[in-house]
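Final report, Chapter 2: Outcomes

The project's central promise was a pipeline that accepts a single protein chain and returns its three-dimensional structure in a standardized token representation, suitable for archiving and comparison. That pipeline is now operational. To close this chapter, we reproduce one record exactly as it appears in the project archive, with the input sequence first and the structure output second.
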Amino acid sequence: MDERTPRTTSTSAVPDSGSGTGSQQLVRLATTNATTELATNGISRRRKILAFAIAALSDVISIPAELAPPIQWTVDGLTAFALFAVMGWRWALLPVLVVEAVPVLGMFPTWTLAVSALIATTPTSKPNASPSTRA
């Protein structure tokens, strides 16, 4: 019991003594909450299929639209908006938007590759089993 008392006292004194420890605790708490939220709130299977279809369609349209850059930029902007609407905010989609703005690189299936990577790394949400939410 005597050994536990100094540990408790020193642990409670550490956050008050320096901001480094407090910020580390805040980062640890935020990371834990984000990981828990991602694990419980993944993307539904239907949304994953829709996002892949949007990306594939955009890449198919991008090949002939490469001859008219304003059309290409419009397609890419609409694709980014649609993917953010379907999948939520994903940082991995922003570099693809930049790559698509480069004239020759827009011909490669970058949207499809990025969405495929996100689909593979993001957990699929499970449907709720409670009948009250389905009504």
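Archive annotation: The chain has two domains: 4-40, 45-121.
This record, like all others produced under the grant, will remain available to the consortium after the project formally closes.
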